[in-house]
Amino acid sequence: HHTSHSTSSDTGSDIERARLRPGIRASASHASPFSATPTETMAAGGMSTLTIEAGVVMRFDYGSANIWRIGLGSSNGSLASNIWPVRLIANGTASEPIVLTSAEGSPPAGDWGGIRWGGGPPAGNVMNHVRIEYAGGFSGTTGFGCGPGNNDAALIITSWRPDEAFIPDSTFSDSAGGGIVSGWHSDEPGPNLLGNNTFTNIA
Fold this sequence. Notes:
The protein has 203 residues and is mostly beta strands.
Protein backbone atom coordinates (compact mmCIF):
# COMPACT_ATOMS: atom_id res chain seq x y z
CA HIS A 1 0.00 0.00 0.00
CA HIS A 2 1.18 3.52 -0.65
CA THR A 3 2.32 5.56 2.32
CA SER A 4 1.55 9.06 1.14
CA HIS A 5 -1.65 11.04 1.22
CA SER A 6 -3.29 13.74 -0.85
CA THR A 7 -4.08 16.97 0.95
CA SER A 8 -4.79 20.58 0.14
CA SER A 9 -3.61 23.25 2.56
CA ASP A 10 -5.98 25.94 3.78
CA THR A 11 -4.88 29.41 2.70
CA GLY A 12 -2.90 31.04 5.46
CA SER A 13 -3.10 28.00 7.69
CA ASP A 14 -0.84 25.14 8.63
CA ILE A 15 -3.84 22.82 8.90
CA GLU A 16 -4.21 20.32 6.08
CA ARG A 17 -7.39 18.54 5.13
CA ALA A 18 -6.88 14.82 4.71
CA ARG A 19 -9.41 12.36 3.39
CA LEU A 20 -8.72 9.10 5.17
CA ARG A 21 -8.55 6.00 3.03
CA PRO A 22 -7.02 2.58 3.63
CA GLY A 23 -3.33 2.71 2.83
CA ILE A 24 -2.94 6.28 4.07
CA ARG A 25 -0.10 7.21 6.38
CA ALA A 26 -0.78 10.30 8.49
CA SER A 27 2.70 11.60 9.24
CA ALA A 28 3.54 14.01 12.03
CA SER A 29 6.66 15.08 10.11
CA HIS A 30 4.55 16.07 7.08
CA ALA A 31 1.95 18.22 8.77
CA SER A 32 0.24 18.37 12.12
CA PRO A 33 -2.52 19.01 12.92
CA PHE A 34 -4.78 17.60 10.25
CA SER A 35 -8.36 18.71 9.78
CA ALA A 36 -9.89 15.42 8.73
CA THR A 37 -12.89 14.79 6.50
CA PRO A 38 -13.23 11.03 6.85
CA THR A 39 -15.65 8.65 5.18
CA GLU A 40 -16.57 5.04 5.78
CA THR A 41 -13.93 2.82 4.21
CA MET A 42 -14.25 -0.63 2.67
CA ALA A 43 -11.17 -2.70 2.07
CA ALA A 44 -12.68 -4.95 -0.58
CA GLY A 45 -10.15 -7.28 -2.14
CA GLY A 46 -7.90 -7.80 0.85
CA MET A 47 -6.27 -6.21 3.84
CA SER A 48 -5.70 -2.46 3.99
CA THR A 49 -3.94 -0.43 6.66
CA LEU A 50 -4.38 3.05 8.09
CA THR A 51 -1.20 4.25 9.82
CA ILE A 52 -1.19 7.27 12.13
CA GLU A 53 2.24 8.23 13.35
CA ALA A 54 3.23 9.45 16.82
CA GLY A 55 2.56 13.15 17.39
CA VAL A 56 -0.27 13.49 14.88
CA VAL A 57 -3.23 15.63 15.97
CA MET A 58 -6.44 15.17 13.96
CA ARG A 59 -9.30 17.64 14.42
CA PHE A 60 -12.82 16.75 13.32
CA ASP A 61 -15.47 19.29 12.37
CA TYR A 62 -19.00 19.12 13.65
CA GLY A 63 -21.69 18.45 11.05
CA SER A 64 -25.30 18.70 12.14
CA ALA A 65 -26.51 16.42 9.34
CA ASN A 66 -23.62 13.95 9.34
CA ILE A 67 -21.51 13.30 12.40
CA TRP A 68 -17.93 12.99 11.17
CA ARG A 69 -15.90 10.00 12.27
CA ILE A 70 -13.15 7.65 11.24
CA GLY A 71 -14.79 4.65 9.59
CA LEU A 72 -12.67 1.51 9.29
CA GLY A 73 -13.65 -1.59 7.37
CA SER A 74 -17.03 -3.16 6.78
CA SER A 75 -18.77 -6.47 7.30
CA ASN A 76 -21.73 -8.43 6.02
CA GLY A 77 -21.87 -11.13 8.67
CA SER A 78 -19.48 -12.64 11.17
CA LEU A 79 -17.64 -15.10 8.90
CA ALA A 80 -14.09 -14.08 8.04
CA SER A 81 -14.95 -14.23 4.34
CA ASN A 82 -17.64 -11.58 4.91
CA ILE A 83 -15.40 -9.08 6.69
CA TRP A 84 -13.52 -6.45 4.69
CA PRO A 85 -10.78 -5.58 7.17
CA VAL A 86 -8.81 -2.44 7.80
CA ARG A 87 -5.86 -2.69 10.16
CA LEU A 88 -5.15 0.36 12.32
CA ILE A 89 -1.56 1.17 13.30
CA ALA A 90 -1.73 4.16 15.66
CA ASN A 91 1.50 3.92 17.63
CA GLY A 92 1.92 7.02 19.76
CA THR A 93 4.35 7.47 22.62
CA ALA A 94 4.15 9.00 26.09
CA SER A 95 5.94 12.13 24.83
CA GLU A 96 4.23 12.18 21.41
CA PRO A 97 0.68 10.87 21.80
CA ILE A 98 -1.76 10.67 18.91
CA VAL A 99 -4.72 12.99 19.55
CA LEU A 100 -8.12 12.66 17.86
CA THR A 101 -10.27 15.60 18.89
CA SER A 102 -12.82 18.21 17.87
CA ALA A 103 -11.93 21.18 15.69
CA GLU A 104 -14.00 23.48 17.91
CA GLY A 105 -12.36 25.80 20.42
CA SER A 106 -14.64 24.82 23.31
CA PRO A 107 -16.35 21.63 22.14
CA PRO A 108 -19.06 19.74 23.98
CA ALA A 109 -18.92 16.00 24.53
CA GLY A 110 -20.07 14.18 21.40
CA ASP A 111 -18.97 16.93 19.01
CA TRP A 112 -17.74 14.27 16.56
CA GLY A 113 -18.35 10.56 16.12
CA GLY A 114 -15.08 8.86 17.08
CA ILE A 115 -13.86 5.63 15.49
CA ARG A 116 -16.42 3.21 14.06
CA TRP A 117 -14.65 -0.02 13.21
CA GLY A 118 -16.89 -2.34 11.21
CA GLY A 119 -14.21 -4.75 9.99
CA GLY A 120 -10.70 -5.51 11.15
CA PRO A 121 -8.14 -8.30 11.36
CA PRO A 122 -8.10 -10.27 14.62
CA ALA A 123 -4.39 -9.56 15.18
CA GLY A 124 -1.82 -6.89 14.38
CA ASN A 125 -3.78 -3.75 15.32
CA VAL A 126 -2.11 -1.06 17.44
CA MET A 127 -3.65 1.79 19.46
CA ASN A 128 -0.87 2.88 21.77
CA HIS A 129 -0.85 6.26 23.56
CA VAL A 130 -3.92 7.49 21.65
CA ARG A 131 -6.16 10.17 23.13
CA ILE A 132 -9.76 10.36 21.83
CA GLU A 133 -11.70 13.33 23.18
CA TYR A 134 -15.11 15.01 22.64
CA ALA A 135 -16.29 12.04 20.57
CA GLY A 136 -19.22 9.67 21.08
CA GLY A 137 -21.68 11.55 18.86
CA PHE A 138 -24.68 9.80 17.32
CA SER A 139 -23.61 6.67 15.45
CA GLY A 140 -26.86 4.86 14.74
CA THR A 141 -25.28 1.71 16.21
CA THR A 142 -27.60 -0.35 18.41
CA GLY A 143 -27.68 -3.83 19.89
CA PHE A 144 -23.94 -4.44 20.33
CA GLY A 145 -22.17 -5.06 23.59
CA CYS A 146 -23.84 -5.79 26.92
CA GLY A 147 -24.65 -2.23 27.93
CA PRO A 148 -27.33 0.21 26.81
CA GLY A 149 -29.20 -0.39 23.56
CA ASN A 150 -27.77 2.83 22.14
CA ASN A 151 -24.11 2.09 21.44
CA ASP A 152 -22.61 5.52 20.79
CA ALA A 153 -18.99 5.62 21.97
CA ALA A 154 -15.57 7.08 21.25
CA LEU A 155 -14.52 3.69 19.82
CA ILE A 156 -17.08 1.23 18.40
CA ILE A 157 -16.00 -2.26 17.29
CA THR A 158 -18.78 -4.21 15.58
CA SER A 159 -19.07 -7.63 13.91
CA TRP A 160 -15.42 -8.67 14.21
CA ARG A 161 -13.58 -10.04 17.21
CA PRO A 162 -10.06 -8.89 18.13
CA ASP A 163 -7.77 -11.56 19.54
CA GLU A 164 -5.45 -9.11 21.27
CA ALA A 165 -5.72 -6.39 23.92
CA PHE A 166 -4.21 -3.90 21.49
CA ILE A 167 -5.16 -0.64 23.26
CA PRO A 168 -2.61 0.17 26.02
CA ASP A 169 -1.85 3.53 27.66
CA SER A 170 -4.66 5.39 25.86
CA THR A 171 -7.17 7.99 27.06
CA PHE A 172 -10.86 8.34 26.32
CA SER A 173 -12.34 11.59 27.59
CA ASP A 174 -15.47 13.73 27.30
CA SER A 175 -17.50 11.21 25.32
CA ALA A 176 -21.24 11.73 24.97
CA GLY A 177 -21.56 7.94 24.84
CA GLY A 178 -19.30 5.19 26.13
CA GLY A 179 -15.54 4.95 25.96
CA ILE A 180 -15.31 1.63 24.10
CA VAL A 181 -18.20 -0.50 22.80
CA SER A 182 -17.40 -3.87 21.23
CA GLY A 183 -19.66 -6.63 20.01
CA TRP A 184 -19.50 -9.62 17.66
CA HIS A 185 -21.59 -12.64 16.73
CA SER A 186 -19.89 -15.25 18.90
CA ASP A 187 -20.09 -16.73 22.38
CA GLU A 188 -16.31 -16.69 22.54
CA PRO A 189 -15.06 -13.95 24.89
CA GLY A 190 -12.75 -11.29 23.59
CA PRO A 191 -9.75 -9.55 25.15
CA ASN A 192 -10.04 -7.04 27.96
CA LEU A 193 -9.75 -3.72 26.14
CA LEU A 194 -9.93 -1.66 29.34
CA GLY A 195 -6.33 -2.48 30.24
CA ASN A 196 -4.45 0.40 31.81
CA ASN A 197 -6.37 2.98 29.79
CA THR A 198 -7.86 6.15 31.29
CA PHE A 199 -11.56 7.01 31.02
CA THR A 200 -12.67 10.49 32.13
CA ASN A 201 -16.00 12.32 31.77
CA ILE A 202 -17.66 9.39 30.01
CA ALA A 203 -21.46 9.62 29.75
